[in-house]
Amino acid sequence: MAEMLEKILSNLLEPDTALIQQATAQLKEAFKDPAVVPALCTILTSCPNPQIRQFAAVLVRRRVAKHWKKLSPDLKNNLKPVVLQSLQQEHEHKVRHSLAQLAAIIVKHETPEHWPQLLQFITHWTKSSVPGERQVGMLLLSTVVDISTEAFKRHFRDLLRLFHLTLEDHSNQPVIFYTIQTLTAMLSFMGTEEMNMMKPMIPKLLVGIQILIQHNQDQASEAMEVFDELMESEVSIIVPHLAQIVQFCLEIAANTNLGDNIRVKALSCVSFLIKVKGKTILKQKLLPSILNVLYPIMCAPPPEGEMDPEDLEIEDDIEEEVEAQTPKHFSAQVIDMLALHLPPEKLFSQLTPLMEPALRSENPYQRKAGLMSMAVLAEGCADHIRQKHLQVMLRCMCQALADHSEVVRNAALFALGQFSEFLQPDISKYSDEIMPLLLNYLSTIDNSKGAHLTKAYYALENFVENLGKKIEPYLPTLMDHMLSVLCSTNSNRGKELAVSAIGAIANAAKEALLPYFQAVITHLKGYLLNTSEELRQVQIQSLETLGVLARSIGKDVFAPLAEECCQLGLNLIDQVDDPDLRRCTYSLFASLSVVMGPSMAPHLEKMTTLMLLSIKSTEGVTAHYDNDSKTFLLLDDDLEEEDSITEEEEDEDDADITGFSVENAYLDEKEDACDALGEISVNTGAAFMPFMESCFEEIFRINDYPHINVRKSVFEAVGQFCCSLYKVAQDNPTDQNLEAFQKLVSVVLPCYLKTLEEERDRLLVMTVLEALNSILKHCKAEALREPGRLDAISKAIRDVLLKKTTCQDSENEELDSDEEQQAEYDAMLIEYAGDGIPLLAAAVGGQVFAPYFAGFLPLLLAKTKASCTIAEKSFAIGIVAETVQAMEGASVQFVPRLLPTLMSGARDTDDEVRSNSVFGIGVLVEHGKESMHTHYPSLLNILSSIISREQNRRVLDNVCGAVSRMILTHVSGVPIEQVFPVLIRSLPLKEDLEENVTVFNCISFMYKNQPSQVIQHLPQLLAVISQVIGTDQIQEESRRSLVTMLKDILHGFPQEFQSALRPLPQEMASKLRSLITS
């Protein structure tokens, strides 16, 4: 049979389709014979053709993998020596590799202890004096350990001792490579003792990789994965060698004689180290070395006659361009990582001396590097830029928009887009300077220049999206341009960009877009009903913009279109198989739920079914196979026998798979499906309940999905499910609904708390904190009913404030003289946790929460010291004030500890710190009652001093609120004749409109208790009331209270009222008259 099989395999390797089909049929028939495996083993040991020997090894392995349990004991036992004998006599690398994989599959079923000859073979051959034998021994070891790592755990210490020797085999590069591969597979399974054995191996790894670089850069790049695995598994053992590793990677990155892949891999290692050990990098003074390598790479011009990928005129999405894997692009990403994980002051002090000369350089690529540096600083250093650099940097970008080099203009547009995305609302203050520049720039661009046009729209969209009412002067020009593009251009990319820009404009303009609404809808309908492939991207973008319009134009305007849009979305999913289209349709459904609410009920069954299919789908997942095995995969289906294969056996057949990847579009589809289901559940309420359980189960099932953005959406969605179910239970408080809510939070909250403690990704932890806070805000005490839950959540918040969670990486990383400094995102994480403190207080009440607040207070007050940053002081004082407000009377015991801090904060140089401190004084007065009375003179002195010189409207508004609370709480402690006129003159409030409730309560109180004071200032008071009443600046309760007071004044003091009404503009006077007489 062996001779016949050999002939069949030989025919399968011939370039003759008919012969291959015939041979495949013959092979399928041969596989029905139990003697096929022994025959293939004969070929393994005797056939002179290495391709056929490899083919035989692969076929045996796949047979063994699928049918191990069905093989006879004799065959199993006979197979083992054949594999080792073949490995011993084989000289072809590809055949050896396939034999090693076969051995690994046997070990997976048998365990090493049931195959002692294998261990003896590995021990002998890895220590052989013959270089070739050492290679075979290490190849076999690396392969079996990779597939059955856990089975070798008891041998780890022996293997580590071996690796200390094999890493010194400097003349035998394959041995070094296989050693590092084996080590990489073992790392995530190692315990503390093994990790300690690893520590002295780090320098040997660096030497080994350096040797590999000289001979095989691809292998060297793969070997550097060992550092990624170390950083994931046990980063602390790297710390003693951190400087050495960083320097090693920087030398590789700076070496222009090496290929892009190995240089990018080295930069990737540096980036990962910054993420997990940023403080150590600062402490060991490695930042200057890193920047001095990155900057020349960023400034380097492309080879003569070429351009950087993002400057080519190709119509790629800007996000994809930025991710191009070249050393230049990755260098910018490393600076981005530095910005996200280092204190801005430290980074700017080192980066500015490199950035400023580059921006002034005659070389366009150096100017580009300076602008790209600014762009990637925007996210991580947003507060620092706002406070110290925004105006100068924006001026630099605006000047660069007129640069003679398109390369520089491209970079300026990208930088402006990044600033617009991350520096809101501050950047919007410069709209009068920036908008004319952008509009002029857009009008001069050739629509055929895809990449350049994309960048111009990127900057415009990000800038206009958050302008709010400031967009209105530019709305006619913007919309005329966009509608003109849709009517005239032949470029589908131009149409796509214009449709996207209309969405951004709508987001800012809201109802002001109404004059253009019908024209926009007409265009969008045309694109949405056209299912031609060439218009697909325009169609997808039209769905997205339609969703923005549904949210922004006003419910009454969009409601007549909502049903039609629902049907359109469902039809499109039926007609077009495209993950991006499905993603945008799901987002449209979420937007429509805002407009439709419970009336979306008839469509929910189909919508949820479609979205759950997307969440469960494995579409877009690609398995990556070992190169040596790809040739034989096409035969898999043909060789399957008719008899059934169990799922367990099917899963065993993965030896060829080296990894998986998922296309971004399918990840985005899952993410948006989760987002949409969460929002729809909130907006449709009880109508969503029939689908709640199945949606929760499917979404929660992927809470450990390998992609962070999908996990973020999962955690957000299940939090929204909790809020939705709580609302339903409150509206219809049946036992079933209340029990369902408790069951849901009993699963979700423990999962949140576990993630907060164990998750390494900082942004994901922030997402979980935000979702947790949302549950606390909406569900209050019901979310905390289970015993121990208040303790558990308080501990989680406290751990974040103390920087004890996994993602905060505080172990052994104290910075000497300036330990207060931290990255802005580290501070933001603490702020997200702190936001939960007043929410807990509001949920359980002040008396219950007081002991917990006593525990939090030292941590918060520590952030109010003079040496702390503005952001830290503002955050801590804001949390204290909100918690006092939530705790109400129970906060009286904390007056002695809080008042000095709040009084000091009221004198701070920063507007936000003053504003929060003054608000805190007000609520402490309100709830501290008698304990605050003795402090009135000093408090009034501070508030009077502020109001006499304050320029910031929010601070003034908070002073009005604080004074009003003082009057309401202890009117006899306030010199009304002096204070009340000043209060009235400071009205109406302009920014902190929430304080209107307190201010107008105070005025109503004064009218009841000291009406003469109100009548004395009636002209000013009526002017104020006429400006705010009937607007969204005051709540309905305040409106009713004011109307009642005005009616009473008219009745009691008619002459004074008419006299005060006379000077008002006719429109205002008429409004007041109609309110009083209604």
TrEMBL record:
GO terms for molecular function: small GTPase binding. InterPro entries: ARM-like, ARM-type_fold, HEAT, IMB1_TNPO1-like_TPR, Importin-beta_N, Importin_beta, TOG, TPR_IPO4/5. Keywords: Acetylation, Cytoplasm, Nucleus, Protein transport, Repeat, Transport. One of its GO terms (biological process) is protein import into nucleus. Residues 23-89 form the Importin N-terminal domain. It is found in: Cytoplasm; Nucleus. GO terms for cellular component: cytoplasm; nucleus. This is Importin-4.
